[in-house]
Amino acid sequence: MTERFFKEYLARFKPFKTYWNYEDGCLLLGCQRMFEATGRSLYAEFVLRYLSQRIEQNGSIPTYLTDAHSLDSFNCGKVLFFAADLTNEDRYRRAADWIAEQIQAHPRTKSGFCWHKEIYPEQIWIDGVYMAAPFFAQYAGRTRNDRVYQEIGRWFAFVKKHMRNPENGLYYHGLDEARAQRWANPQTGLSRSHWLRGEGWLLMALTDTLALLPESQHELRALLSGMLRDAEASLRPFRNADGCFLQVIDRQDAEGNYTETSGNLMIAYAFMRGAEMGVLDAAAGQCGAQILNTIKSEKLIQSPDGMHLTGICSAAGLGGITDRDGSCAYYLSEPVVSDDPKGVGVLMLAEAVRLQAAQRRNHQKNAV
């Protein structure tokens, strides 16, 4: 049923935005992983068709918004290495090189960390780590540039030190180093709430970056492994009876709090992949599988016009022209939509891990 939904979704796909965007990147990466798990050509063909329409032969990307200086823009770049390997076309390697160079012009906070975007000065958002760190880990491996790993380590160490709540182990959505934003705590600069998809972005950043690190990166591997194990353990007390988590993780008392689809799928993916890598224990992998099954049974709905993935928070941010205040009420006020690529792409990621885990178990069983 799930793969039927993917086939229908890709057939009716329309780009999320007119420019190079992270939402489509979630779907592209999901397609890559589903191709790797199943070998079915429609997934690879979708990725190559999407990229070939947006990347020139010289590697330039006309719809990339360079002046936005957005960490989100790195997300689509993750599939360029996959496309280069499949096609052996230099334009994809050139595009990856060009995207990597954008970090040099990226504005940074006083402590040296990338702003989330040009329009969010001095602000670090936790989703930015997912957008950029796995891309640069992959780029470092391809270019044998070990200095990149040092920068990646600084990102994660900063997030652990400054954005983790020591009382419950959960992470905050944003940090304003300037302490100027209305949503920021005037003493710490932190936002107020523990948003599920924010936590999910971080967990996926940890697992995806870990999977790309060479064995020689002992200290960085230890840092990320410890953060992943701590984050998994910290989430356990907040699980509902169905095994899932709420949109504002620690506010079971809040009226209207709900089981949000994309964040739960991110956690399911990270738990299952972390267990497959041997970083998390088998119980975490089973927890991830339970979350995936719950979302598939309750949120993947058959309608007269086809199948739809429901219950996805359409977007959430901090400040901006709508002055998003980071409160629990704010996160619960954002529209809930269906078929957003932030949900569908991560469903692909989680389903691909499930399929590969089943394949591994079958291989071990047959080898006995």
Question: Can you describe what's shown?
Answer:
- The chain is mostly helical.
- It has a single domain (2-367), classed as Glycosyltransferase (Alpha/alpha barrel), CATH 1.50.10.10.
- Helices cover 53% and strands 5% of the residues.
- Helix 8 runs antiparallel to helix 9, helix 8 (196-212) runs parallel beside helix 10 (261-276) and helix 10 (261-276) packs antiparallel against helix 11 (282-299).
- The radius of gyration is 19 Å and the shape is globular.
- The model has no long low-confidence stretch (mean pLDDT 96).
Brief sketch in words of this structure:
The protein has 13 helices and 6 strands.
Q: Which key terms come to mind for this protein?
A:
368 residues; Glycosyltransferase; mainly alpha; 13 helices; 53% helix; 5% strand; two-stranded antiparallel ribbon
Q: The CATH topology is what?
A: Glycosyltransferase
CATH class: Mainly Alpha
Named CATH architecture: Alpha/alpha barrel
Helical residue percent?
A: 40-55%
User: Which regions contain 5 or more consecutive residues with pLDDT less than 50?
Assistant: none
**Mean pLDDT, rounded to whole units?**
96
